[in-house]
Amino acid sequence: MQEQKSQPADWHLSTFPPLSGVHVSSAAAPLPFQRVCFLLQVRPDRLAEYRARHRQVWPEMLQALRDTGWHNYSLFLSEDGLLVGYFETPDLQAALDSMQAREVNARWQAEMAPFFVGLAGQTPDEGFLRLEEVFHLD
User: Fold this and answer.
1) Quick check: helix, strand or coil at residue 130?
2) 8-state DSSP, 29
3) How far is CA 40 from CA 7, 75, 128, in A?
4) Do 64 and 99 touch, CB atoms closer than 8 A?
5) Residue 71: what are its φ and ψ, rounded to 5°?
6) CA distance linking residue 138 with residue 129, whole number of Å
7) Strand-pair category, 116-117 with 34-42
C-alpha cells in the first residue's frame, strides 16, 4: 500500500498564482479577480484611427498592463463610438495606481485622450464610467 503524503499545514490553493481564465472558488474564499466593465465615448470622426491604434498597441504598454494586474482585457466599440471595456484584476485600485506610476502609461493616455469626449480634463484611465455588475454566470 502506497503512503499518502499530506500537504503542509499552511498549504492552500490560494497560495498558487491564478491560472489565466480560471477562477478558484469556495464558500470560504472570494474569487481572486474583480471583474471590471467600463464605458467611454470615442469621437465619431476618430473611430477608424482609434481602431488602427489598437491594432498596434506598444509592446511596452501591453507588458505594463500585464505587470500591473490587468488580465483578460478587451475593448468593444460600436459604430456610434460607445466603447465598452472589460478586464479582470486582483485589485482594481492597485492596478490603477500601478499604471499611474508607469511612464509608458502617461505617454499612452496623453496620445489617447484626444480620441474621447466627456473626460473633463481627465485621462481616459481616470475618466471612464465603471459599470455595476448585476449578474454573472460562471
Assistant:
1) strand
2) S
3) 48, 10, 5
4) yes
5) -125, 155
6) 24
7) antiparallel
The radius of gyration computed from the CA coordinates of the chain, to the nearest angstrom, equals 19
- Grid coordinates belonging to 10: 499552511
β-strands 129-131, 116-117: how paired?
Answer: unpaired
Q: Which residues have a catalytic role annotated?
A: 54
Pairing relationship of beta strands 34-42 and 129-131 according to DSSP bridges:
antiparallel
Contact (Cβ atoms closer than 8 angstroms) between residue 102 and residue 63: no
Phi-psi region of 90 (alpha: psi -120 to 50; beta: other; left: phi over 0): alpha
Q: Which residues contact 81 (CB under 8 A, 6 or more apart)?
A: 41, 42, 43, 44, 47, 117
* Residue 31 one-letter amino acid: L
The pLDDT score that the predictor gives to residue 31 is 55
How many residues are listed for the chain in this entry?
A: 138
In one-letter notation, the amino acid at residue 29 is: A
Cell numbers representing residue 5 in the block? 503524503
List Cβ neighbours of 116 (8 Å cut-off, separation of 6 or more). Answer: 40, 41, 42, 43, 124, 127
Query: What digits encode the pLDDT tens for the residues 73-123?
Result: 999 999 999 999 999 999 999 999 999 999 999 999 999 999 999 999 899
